[in-house]
Design a protein that fits this description.
There is one protein chain. This protein is mainly α. It has one domain. The chain has 12 helices and no strands. The protein has helices at 44-47, 56-59, 66-71, 79-89, 95-112, 124-160, 165-196, 205-214, 216-233, 244-266, 268-273, 277-280.
Length: 284
């Protein structure tokens, strides 16, 4: 886990950076992906450490900068080596997927605060812990949805039997749509949970629904770009599938950067209304 402001390594579960005092949960810097040297456009007021003096125009983005997401990693001289190592980690059952998601978390947070370069270095242990913190609640939320969906199907089959084909078809269509909508809903919450460092968002329907509804347009773009990233990852299949170990991590890193920007957009009201006393200088 690394500080989103100064980049120093932080202890797992730490709330504030021991080096600069920045919050580990709410990014303080705006995404400024337009500058070639990746320096944020920080006002003099923000440099003074008072987030209240930053205008909404300075800290907000209206859309996802897809161009930056698809090109940023290639500016890091180590990008190829990182992609290869991640590809090899993918071969490790279960643990490899957890570590890969932990790396996803670090890339996303870097994109969220405008410090996406250099790419995070691979740290198996730290990224495993980071990944599992989000994968467990995300998986649990989906399991709950599947369990709920199984109830009407089981009851329908038990009460009416399979002889009522029309009822069975209608029931299966409704349940299928429910599962698809729920899956997309939780998928849309991943960027917000990662950037806010709050896995409980998967179970906070009120906050999640508000964020998804407010960012519906950008979330549609996010899902479409995620599909494109998946297509990029599958390009390696042309090389007897061995190339997947190289192209899939590339697509994954691009998707993580897009998710970081999306997460930043989704947490803006959180950042505005829930800045910790340490950040504002107000007494706790």
């Amino acid at each position: 886990m690394y500080c989103v402001k100064c980049g120093k390594k932080m202890e797992h579960e730490a709330k504030y950076c021991s080096a600069c005092g920045a919050s580990a949960y709410l990014p303080r810097l705006p995404i400024s992906a337009t500058l070639p040297d990746n320096k944020c456009l920080i006002s003099a007021q923000e440099e003074s450490g008072d987030p209240r003096s930053i205008s909404n125009q300075d800290i907000s983005l209206n859309t996802i900068d897809a161009g930056r997401s698809f090109s940023f990693m290639f500016k890091d001289e180590s990008w190829a080596g990182i992609a290869i190592v991640l590809g090899l980690i993918m071969l490790i059952p279960i643990a490899g997927s957890v570590v890969l998601f932990g790396y996803f978390v670090e890339v996303a947070r870097g994109a969220a605060c405008g410090k996406d370069l250099p790419l995070p270095r691979i740290s198996f242990g730290d990224q495993f812990l980071s990944g599992i913190r989000f994968l467990i609640p995300y998986s649990l939320a989906n399991i709950i949805v599947l369990s709920i969906a199984a109830v009407p199907v089981a009851l329908g089959v038990k009460l009416l039997g399979l002889e009522s084909e029309i009822f069975a078809i209608v029931l299966f269509v409704i349940v299928g749509l429910f599962i698809i909508v729920a899956f997309l809903y939780f998928l849309c919450l991943v960027p917000m949970a990662v950037v806010a460092d709050d896995p409980s968002i998967f179970f906070n329907f009120s906050k999640g629904r508000e964020a998804v509804g407010r960012n519906a347009g950008n979330l549609i773009v996010f899902i479409m770009l995620s599909i494109v990233c998946g297509a990029i990852g599958s390009l390696g299949a042309a090389a007897c599938y061995v190339g997947l170990l190289f192209t899939m991590p590339i697509g994954y890193i691009i998707k993580a950067h897009i998710a970081g920007q999306m997460g930043w957009l989704m947490i803006q009201p959180i950042r505005k209304n829930e800045i910790p006393p340490h950040e504002t200088g107000e007494p706790a």
